[in-house]
Amino acid sequence: MFSAPTMGMKKIMRSKRKQQQGTILDELVFEILIRLPVKSLVRFKAVSKAWQAIMSDPFFIRAQLGCSKQRQRHDPSSFLITPQVLLEPDCTAEEHAVKAMSTDIHFYRWNLREFDCSSSTTTLICRRRFPDGEFGAVSHLAHCDGLVLLPTSTKAYVFNPATGDVLALPASQRNMLRNVMALPAGLVLDASTGRYKVARFFFRARKIKRWDIDTMGMEVFTIGGGGEDDKDPSWRETLVHPPYPVQSAQTGTHCKGHLLFFINKHHQEQPPNGLLRFSLQDETFGVTPFPSNMESAVDDEDIFAQELDGELCCSYVSKSSQRLLIWITRDVQDPQWGCRYVIDLRDDCRPMASLGSMAALGSDGILLRRGNFIFRYDFEVNGVREDEIFDMSRLIYFGPIEDTVGHVWKNVAWFDLISYSESLVPITRAYRPKML
């Protein structure tokens, strides 16, 4: 026989309904917040201690990053542009690696969806002016999960352009070759610990008589820690030594927890035909071979290696077919290369993003870069549309405060262009994300 609920039962039922409603509301707010721009989230952190605690929680940071990366994969329209400006404008391209560069670093946001070849613009999101002479030469930037690494001839710097944070990594005394070039370095996430690490080669001797296994060593810096007590972060040398020296003044390509570098084959009797691979999980080395059916006449300096859509990509212009070939592999340790794109272009280009069928752009395509030029290769017409070629040196660069009318950069050695996913990942304190 059914009996009416008592007053006590009604209170319990009302309490449960409120809890359920509160849980649904919290989940809804959470889903909204992780989709907001990082700039807005940084402002919200100042509203209250409760909001600051929510947005500083590792689980929230990881969720926001996952949402940002997914959005960029499905709609690769967000890019960072950093002009590397020469202090001595009259020098050749070969001298860029050793010439002093400006210590005034700018990060501009460029939205591919808002392109207009006649009046394309970018917006300054982060600027850091270091003291004059703090560093000389710089190398190309590296990007991982919203963090950006700037290797220089003195120190290495890690930025989070979205939050405005910057970390100058401590000096190391291991490098004995005091030259004016930036050391080969890379930035990657160690998925086994959830921590970001910078790996950097160093030279063991003041003079190099022969490039061999003893030429270089490897050191690692863990962001937000390093020592056993996490209170004394510092560079530490790896137990395993690099089996081959690598080319100087290069920035490593990160893919699936590994960094990949071009090998210096100078004076090597039988150098491997591939990339030197460094695992951040167990800090060991290996070689990732190039495609076995790649033309033997292709030199390493003609190959571009990078991450593309989460996979390792190698591209070069075939000397026989005079076409750009783009090879892809998902596995960097045991690569099964496949030629994904054959593009009717003879110029040395590098792929920046697979655009898919973005509604704003129409048909499928791939974003390519040649020097300062960015353009979309349209697979429907098998060519490049003239109205979709952008010259980064002619883009209008806006600063939100000091430069409201915009300007064009001059004396630029090169523009760093990065497919960018903004994040809240901190770089100035220990961070152990709760993996989703």
UniProtKB/TrEMBL annotation:
Q: Name one Pfam family in it.
A: F-box
Determine the domain of life of the protein's source.
Eukaryota
The family database entries (Gene3D superfamilies) matched by this protein are listed as: 1.20.1280.50
List each copy of the F-box domain by range: 24-63
> Could you tell me which NCBIfam families the record lists for this protein?
F_box_assoc_1
Protein name from the UniProt record: F-box domain-containing protein
